[in-house]
Amino acid sequence: MVTTQEATTQEVTTLDILAESRLKSSKTLTRYYQLGIIPRPVIKTHPSGRGKINYFPRWVLDKVVRIQELKREGISLKRAVKKYERERIENLAAQLDEITLPSKAMEQGSFKFQNGTEVSLLDVFLGRVMSKVREIITDYEKQLSILDKIRTGGIVDVALHMINIGYNPVLLIRDAGEDELRVSLTTDFLLGLHFSHNLKRAKSLLAIDLFSSFWSLFKAMGEEFPLKPTVRPIPQIIIDQEGEETKYNVELGGESSFRLIEEG
Question: Does any domain span residue 134?
Answer without folding.
Answer: no
